[in-house]
Amino acid sequence: MLFKRPTSSYWYYKFTVKGKVVYRSTGTSDKEKAQEIADKTKAATHDVIKLGNKQRYLWQDAVLKWVSDSEKRSIDTDKYHLKWLRTYLDGVYLDDINEDLIEKIIKAKLKVAGKTRVNRTTELIRSILNKAMKEWKWIDATPHIRRFKEGNHRLRWLTQEEAARLIEELPEHTKAMALFTLATGLRESNVTHLEWTQVDMQRKIAWIHADQAKAGKVIRVPLNQDAIDILVGQIGKHQTRVFTYCGRPVDKVGTHYWREALKRADIENFTWHGLRHTWASWHVQAGTPLNVLQELGGWSSYDMVLRYAHLAPDHLSDYANNVSLKSMRPSASSPMLRLLSA
After folding, report:
1. Is the pLDDT assigned to residue 44 strictly greater than 80?
2. pLDDT tens digits for 24-40?
3. CA-CA 20 to 30 A from 341: which of 78, 95, 261, 314?
4. What is the rounded distance in angstroms from the CA atom of residue 208 to the CA atom of residue 57?
């Protein structure tokens, strides 16, 4: 029996096999897919209970358990990848996921994303399957999943001219989020999920809660006038969320429209996260000390901000002059003076 709950758009199924009641979400709002999943589950449950076979689990079963058990701060990113994977894995038993299916997924993803993003998607599949095998004991083996080599690329940041070209090409709702990122350096999820309760316009401060921050600590975000102006433009669009599209919250910004805007602006090898790199790079070039940048950006490690040190070599000059042999005024017989005079 298929049915929907008032609080969910997903179809649920409920059936009884030899006195055992099975009640579960199908993880889909497509009724045809939901019926297929329910039928498969019922057949598998029948085999387990009546024939004593080992229970088989669908990909959706693993996804639901993965999400419900997860304590990852990046679970929203996982959900984004999992939503894309539904076309290829919905209704598939875990033990039927083989190398051929994985290759099909890789080829499909390469058509819409680069190799790095493909790696993120396949890493998630690998993690879920490994969990299903090692911890949940749902499957006995996992397929080989190839991984593309990722080089240690230089940090890609935009010049002022490039940023202006890109902003000009973005749709209005994405433009607001991009400008806010360039003004604050916040990560994508912190911008898309920002709520009005996290903003104090009078004190010009916003804050990211510990469970929203990558480092697990509250981030206090001072708002410059650019950020304030952007926030003012969002007032009245949504009761809870700061940034929305057609009255609905935005969950992802690196979309087709973003990629098309990059093409029109003639900007290559750039991702949304590059806006954070751009913000940090501009700060260092403007003379912001690295220790201050670390606090502004919410980085847990000083090593992370050292990546930007080369952009401001002149900031070392004043300190280099703190030690000068000539300023020490050695005596006439000093060997140091003889060396300097040679």
Report:
1. no
2. 777 788 888 888 887 87
3. 314
4. 38
What the chain holds in terms of domains, given with CATH numbers, is 1-55 (no CATH), 72-151 (no CATH), 160-317 (1.10.443.10)
Amino acid, single-letter form, for residue 59: W
pLDDT band at 251 (very low <50, low <70, confident <90, very high): confident
Contact 223, 191 (CB under 8 A): no
* 312: amino acid identity, one letter: A
**Residues known to be catalytic:** 187, 214, 273, 276, 299, 308
Measured in degrees and rounded to the nearest 5, phi and psi for residue 280 equal -65, -40
Tokens of residue 245, six digits: 């599209």
> Around Cβ 115, how many Cβ atoms within 10 Å?
14
Handedness of CA 166, 167, 169, 175 (dihedral sign): positive
Q: Which residues pair with 14 in a beta bridge?
A: 23
Could you give the C-alpha distances from 47 to 24, 51, 89, 183, 279, in angstroms and in order?
Answer: 18, 5, 22, 59, 58
The DSSP annotation for 189-216 comes to HHHHT-BGGGEETTTTEEEE-GGGSTTS
**Does 207 score more than 70 pLDDT?**
yes
Report phi then psi at 252, rounded to 5. -145, 140
Q: What is the pLDDT of residues 76-85, one digit of tens each?
A: 778 888 999 9
Q: What pLDDT, in 10s, does the model give residues 147-187?
A: 988 755 567 889 999 999 999 999 998 999 999 999 999 99
Is residue 223's pLDDT more than 70? yes
Check if the beta carbon of residue 301 is closer than 8 Å to that of residue 217: no
Report pLDDT for 190: 93
Rounded CA-CA distance 90/59 in Å is 6
3-state SS class at 22: strand
